[in-house]
Amino acid sequence: MNFPIERFLQLKTPFYYYDMDLLKATLVRLRDSLPDERFIVHYAIKACSTEPVVKQIASFGIGADCVSGGEVEASINAGISPDKIVFAGVAKADWEILVGLRNNIFCFNVESEEELVNINTLAQQEGVTARVCLRINPDIDPHTHKNISTGLAEDKFGIQIEDLESTLHMFDNLGNLHFLGLHFHIGSQLLDMEPYRQLAQKVNEVVCQTEKLGYAVKVINVGGGLGINYHEPDKEPIADFKTYFGIFKDIIRLRDNQTLHFELGRAIVAQCGSLITRVLYNKHSHTREYVMADAGMNDLIRPALYEAYHSIDNLSNDEPKTHRYDVVGPVCESSDVFQRDYLMPLTRRGDLLAIRSAGAYGETMASRYNLRPLPLHYTSEELKKHQR
Question: Does pTM top 0.90 for this prediction?
Answer without folding.
Answer: yes
